[in-house]
Amino acid sequence: MIRAAALAGALLAWALVAYGNLALEVMNPVLLPTPGEVGALAAVQIRDGSLAHHLTVSALRIVEGFGLAAAAALALGLLVAVSTPARLALEPVIEFVRPIPPLAFLPMFLVWFGLGETSKVAFIAYTTFFPMFVGTGASLLRVDVMLLRAAASLGASRRDLLRRVVLPAALPGIVVALRLGFGLAIFVIVGAEFMGADAGLGNLIMEGRVFFNPAQIVMGALLLGALGSLVNALLLMTERRVLRGRALP
Question: Cys bridge to 113: 15, 88, 118, 158, which one at CB 3.0-4.6 A?
Fold first, then answer.
């Protein structure tokens, strides 16, 4: 209830500022589109099917890139948690590459993978991998040692420790890492679709900039925010269900 009220309050504040500016012309009204203008543009693009096409294209790219990065981050995070030599070998490489801004590599991804889907998916996967790997590895390594000792004293095998103790205990931190990774995937999809894309929300925003259509830019940004909020809610729901299931005898 509180979250819905906060969201409604933010939308109301936007409406008050935008319509107030339209009446008072504190700044050029074209530069601050109103909710009505954005809604009218969305209605037009919904009717002609273009909005659904842009949203579907971007969602598929984000899901593919995020999925690849999440699988790699979980696998390598688990590896460094259970293997000290692997951790000592991987951490220096990860920490050297991780601070490099991903956008610096965007032109190279286009050169390596071309202007098609592969370059965009690979760029999203590369960008989102590092925060998810660091978050996953840290969560797995910070599991309370007392839990491990207690389970081991009861005869739990190494596999049982991993499946029944380590992963459930680290799950909240892993979910946070996945949420951060998905948020970053939405962030970089705009940059990925700025170059060599003929569809997608990033392309929609780019067209709004090129043809000076602020309402289209705001509409694309709001759709990206809605997509991120939806996936964030799904991840939280999954976390609650898994933890509830683990709590059952």
Answer: 118
